[in-house]
Amino acid sequence: MKFIISLLLTALLSFTAGLYLDWWSIAPAAFIISLCIPQQPGKAFLTGFFALFLLWGGLAWCIDSRNAQVLSPRIAQLLGFGGSSFLLVLITALVGALVAGFASLAASYAVGKKRGD
What we know:
about 120 residues; 5 helices; about 0% strand; elongated
């Protein structure tokens, strides 16, 4: 239950922070949620990872489909992905997921040190 609540709150806070702040605001958002809802380090990483993978992947896919996939193949071609829109969305989701996952992991270790684990 903590996993699902933490996942939803991480995605919600990251989305809200992303509306007003820079892209890297997902890291403090994931860190704060992981501090407030302590979990084991592995679960904390997975919470941040999946929350942002689903959030950024869904947002990138939604934006890509709204503009009829006009821009993404060109960007993917420039980045060396062979014009694959899917690969561009996947890499976007993976970058956000790793940032949030490591931020959650860091908070989990910080809480563990305070508890004396």
